Amino acid sequence: MKKYTTNAFLQVQDSQVYSIFAWSQKKAKMIVSKSWLLILEIFIEEHSLETAYHIFQQKKLEPIAQEVIEAKNKHQKLIENDENLLIFLSQDNFTLLGEGFRSFIEKKTQSELGSLSQKTHQILLHFWDDKKLEDDLHKVNSLEAFTTIFKTLETMGLLSPSKTSLNWGDLSRQAPICQAFGLTRGNPVDRYYLRQFIQEIQEQISGKILEVGGTAKDKDFYEINQGDSYQILNLEAGVGVDIVGDVHNPSIIEPESLDSVIIFNVLEHCYAPWIAVENIHKWLKKGGKCFAMVPNGIRVHATPVDYWRPLPDGMKFLFRNFAQQQLYVYGNPMTVIASYHGIAAEELSEEELNNFHPDYPVATCIVAEK
User: Fold this and answer.
1) Which of 147, 122, 130 is nearest to 41 (CA)?
2) What's the pTM?
3) Which residues lie closer than 8 Å to 58 by C-beta, 6 or more apart?
4) How far is residue 177's CA from residue 175's CA, in Å, rounded to a whole number?
5) Do the Cβ atoms of 207 and 228 come closer than 8 Å?
6) How far apart are CA 36 and CA 132, in angstroms?
7) What are 251-281's pLDDT values in tens digits?
């Protein structure tokens, strides 16, 4: 039977309890009810779903233990310091962090209450008994209702497989599942995201268009408006290549002569992507737009060389001289793993592909207007 443990940092803001994600761009998530707190505390010690349910039914009826009351009195100053206090919950650990994440790293201003929590499972309910939480303990009267809350907390990232219980399954291997990005199994995950981006922006691509680093087959894949003219710039001659040259060379294209520039999966191969973007800015007319995509979570692909993985903040910096920019970021922990292993997009559900997490980008795209 699969085992689980709590993995959470909790904080109070304006009398409401939130789950805070460490050093993350992900927004804090509200803890809405007392049942959530009790379940999170139970899973510090207990790792079986059914056993945790039986403990829940027992604990929701018990009066608060005197030891818990005394612990609250002892730590009252910390508890009242909502702005700084974090409560860290993990396997066998219930830790008060008096100076937030700083206390977690520097191991200071900490108070460990793990033993008391494992004995009583009542600390969160008593310490935060005056917070804005639905008192729903009496409503959770079946394993089905308990499991529904459990799954919500797991989806939020607050319950994880317990230590030593991870099951790596098909990922427990030294070689990727597909060495060709997933092409031997279907479409690569980053192509799924590129197609989403193209669907978002294809109506904006118009006029005199230049694609940097493309080929004739790429143009067919994009299925975009061909505009007044559509030219392809590439380092090497080939079918469909109109201009042979290097995007680092500003003299290849006349200044202020283009309406749209497409540069997908190219900037990571540029030894100086900031020069490439600067040149694109020169080539565009005022009001012209650049449409760019770079991979973030993807294996090295030296074609001919592979220099960079610009992240969302890096893309904003590269295009900082444009008058307007809009980022489109795609990915989550599952799709990062899938991308590195060459698991095809068709092997994941739409929900799995589209469940965005800002800390785990697979692809970053931008529309930048001069």
Assistant:
1) 122
2) 0.88
3) none
4) 7
5) yes
6) 13
7) 999 999 999 999 999 999 999 999 999 999 9
